[in-house]
Design a protein that fits this description.
Length: 218
């Protein structure tokens, strides 16, 4: 997806992907990563996700990466956090020490800008990207991680011809294609989210699974 697509979405407030609450999959499965408090978690393509606050409350250092300045500002303002900036477009708050948000293109970040990342939380990041960008995303992510680092990944599996992305269909085969060489892959849960969701059925979808994965950098 072109950067302008996302900047326009924020400008026009078309942000149906944003959840007003902490993601249920995160709450349920985060413990599978067995991450110690004080370790740094990367949240790529973070938007203004409340999930960052939840991870911070667990005692983790949290680094978000987001293209849109509107999203970054909204994250701090809506959570009543003062917003301070370091020279290189990195935002932080004195009240939520340990959370910082890089307002930049994820694909241009170098490992030394982030410090050691022990885990990644990916909800609506990989699936926000069309297939031609996904391999590049995974390569960039792998380059930011050292061996043993883990990823909690949420994907969606549905017939792509029945709905335009984003979010895009990323089925198990695609997860293996993208991560198989550089990560150990474990499926934690597969959930049918079509049943009881009239909105998806009205859009003509006949199948929609949400899948939660634990990936470990080899
Ligand atoms: C579908 S939204 C998901 C946001 C968040 N993960 C959530 O769960 O609410 C994707 C986000 O990625 C941001 N984005 C898209 N391309 C990006 C890039 N190359 N670098 C950083 N952020 C990007 C968009 O501005 C948008 O906020």
């Amino acid at each position: 997806m072109e950067q302008q697509f996302w900047l326009d979405r924020w400008e026009q407030r078309q942000i149906g992907f944003h959840l007003p609450e902490v993601n249920a999959h995160l709450r349920k499965h985060w413990s599978a990563l067995a991450l110690d408090a004080g370790e740094r978690v990367l949240v790529p393509l973070c938007g203004k996700s409340k999930d960052m606050l939840w991870l911070h409350e667990l005692g983790h250092l949290v680094t978000g990466v987001e293209l849109s300045h509107i999203a970054v500002q909204a994250f701090f303002a809506e959570n009543a956090l003062e917003m301070n900036m370091r020279g290189d477009n990195v935002y932080f708050s004195p009240q939520a020490r340990g959370i910082r948000v890089h307002q930049s293109d994820f694909f241009t970040l170098a490992p030394e800008q982030l410090g050691e990342i022990r885990a990644v939380y990916d909800r609506a990041a990989l699936v926000a990207l069309p297939d031609q960008m996904r391999k590049q995303y995974v390569q960039q992510l792998a380059g930011l991680l050292t061996s043993g680092a883990t990823v909690l990944l949420v994907t969606m599996d549905y017939p792509q011809e029945q709905m335009d992305g984003p979010p895009f269909n990323v089925d198990g085969k695609e997860v293996c294609r993208l991560y198989g060489e550089m990560f150990d892959i474990q499926l934690l849960e597969s959930l049918d989210v079509l049943a009881g969701n009239d909105r998806l059925a009205e859009r003509g979808l006949t199948r929609m699974l949400e899948q939660i994965w634990k990936l470990t950098r080899l």
